[in-house]
Design a protein that fits this description.
Structural class: mainly alpha
Radius of gyration: 19 Å
Number of helices: 12
Shape: elongated
Strand content: under 5%
Distance between the termini: 30 Å
Largest sheet: none
Oligomer: single chain
Order of helices and strands: HHHHHHHHHHHH
Helix content: 55-70%
């Protein structure tokens, strides 16, 4: 369940009380809209499909996968599909390897996406067992699909650039600096991340 508009507002008001830059960003750009993804296997598979290709190309591949395997794209059916059939959908050898890694973990029951660990770092570790799912992809999944309130994807370039602008830095902070900047905002960092994307192209900031 994604963070609701009410949760976003409550969290950002709490952080704005601590950080004038956040208060100013909210005043100029307004509250961000919730970012929602469906929890479960299909969202992670779509993440793999969408890596390093355009949104349009990813949508085309996904449409072909649905045509081949059905709208649910069941993991067992993907595992049973022939290499050439998946390649015809647009999945490279590497992406087929990633997709099969996900499907094997789901089918075997080793990865239960309905019961990921409550601890965020443990959940990230569980998700990054999937080949092709790195820390950033795991964090985005936990923030958008599960609505975890304190996820802070400090490796995201837009988050780095956005928080740098919001706080008035002359240059984009790196991942380590971005992580440290947000420490005082626990347990509300997820809402701040969503604000940085919301503000990213706002020329008034």
């Amino acid at each position: 369940m994604a963070l609701s508009a009410q949760q976003l507002e409550t969290s950002l008001r709490a952080v704005a009380a601590l950080e004038p830059g956040i208060a100013r960003a909210v005043e100029i750009a307004g509250m961000p809209e919730p970012r929602v993804r469906e929890p479960g296997y299909r969202t992670l598979l779509r993440t793999i499909v969408g890596q390093q290709v355009s949104v349009a190309a990813a949508a085309s591949v996904w449409g072909k996968l649905e045509a081949l395997l059905g709208p649910a794209v069941p993991p067992g059916d993907l595992l049973a599909a022939e290499f050439d059939a998946l390649r015809a959908c647009g999945l490279s050898r590497q992406k087929q390897g990633y997709a099969r890694s996900l499907c094997e973990l789901v089918v075997s029951g080793e990865l239960d996406l309905t019961a990921l660990p409550a601890d965020d770092e443990e959940a990230i570790a569980e998700l990054t067992r999937i080949k092709g799912i790195g820390r950033w992809s795991a964090e985005i999944y936990l923030l958008f699909a599960e609505g975890r309130p304190d996820i802070w994807p400090a490796g995201d370039l837009a988050v780095q650039a956005g928080i740098g602008r919001i706080l008035g830095h002359e240059s984009r902070p790196d991942e380590k600096a971005t992580r440290l900047l947000a420490e005082p905002w626990r347990p509300h960092r997820g809402a701040v991340a969503i604000l940085t994307w919301h503000c990213y192209n706002n020329a008034a900031l």
